Amino acid sequence: MDRNADAPWSNFDPEVYVDNNYRTPLEADLQIVRLLRDYFGRCFAGSVPGSVRGVDVGAGANLYPALSMLPWCEKVLLLEYAPPNIEYLKRQIAPEGFGSEWDAFWDVLREAPAYRDVEPRGRVSEIVRVERANLFDLDGRRRWDIGTMFFVADSMSECPEEFQRGVRCFMNALGDRAPFAVAFMKESVGYQVGDHRYPAYRVNAARARESLEPFAAELEIHDLHHVVRPGHEGMILALGRREGEIAAP
Question: Which phi and psi (to 5°) does residue 77 adopt?
């Protein structure tokens, strides 16, 4: 059984990953972005707190979760462990602006009124920062007001205990009533990026719900039947608000 520490994270190739998944937008991701946009818009439809801090845990080479939080946040932190992904993300938040591959995702977001007055490249450069961190080191001491975790807890290990711990550490990083979005690859048996193979834990809709329910209110599970590569059966998007006690790491 391959665990998180066994995977070759220092060899992860973000450009290959982006080429495979985002440079030509996949309908699965566009549907996820629509759901994200609409859910976060509903959560902040009333009054917006004066100081909203967002976090994307295990950001990898994916910018659209951060883009989805822009209208409401004064700060967004991208937490990532793999050094190549950190360098990729730093290039995306540089003053010259993020790559054009993310424009299609922003076009979907700006269909909603909350996003239309946001100039995304300037805003990303102004408020988004990147920090190296291991998901397992999040212990609940830092609490964010909105958070995302996309294809992380299920895509780093074959070990069920590490999957559960990853979900728990993410949820413990959120403040009370914080909106969140978590995505999993459904029934993934692992994935290839360039020359390297990475492990996965098999998640279905029931398992996603079971892992999140102890921490969540208003939980929505979207079972999306989009297959984007061999070795999985779709994608699962979970939306909700953080509720409940902080659990032991």
Answer: -110, 130
Residue 173 belongs to what domain range? 4-242
Per the domain annotation, does 248 fall within a domain?
A: no
Is residue 20 assigned to a domain? yes
Checking if the pLDDT of 234 tops 80, the result is yes
Domain with residue 8: its CATH number is: 3.40.50.150
What pLDDT, on a 0 to 100 scale, did the predictor assign at position 245?
Answer: 64
Q: Is residue 249 part of a domain?
A: no
Whether the predicted pLDDT of 231 surpasses 70: yes
CA distance 39 to 45: 10
**Six-digit token pair at 37?**
């946009």
| Contacts with 149 (C-beta within 8 Å, 6 or more apart), sequence order | 56, 57, 58, 170, 180, 181, 182, 183
> Which tens digits make up the pLDDT trace of 119-167?
999 999 999 999 999 999 987 777 899 999 999 999 999 899 999 999 9
Q: How many CB atoms lie within 10 A of CB 68?
A: 28
Amino acid at 58: G
- CA nearest neighbour of 157 among 207, 193, 199, 189: 199
What's this model's pTM, rounded to 2 decimal places?
Answer: 0.94
Tell me how many domains the chain contains: 1
Judge whether 183 lies within some domain.
yes
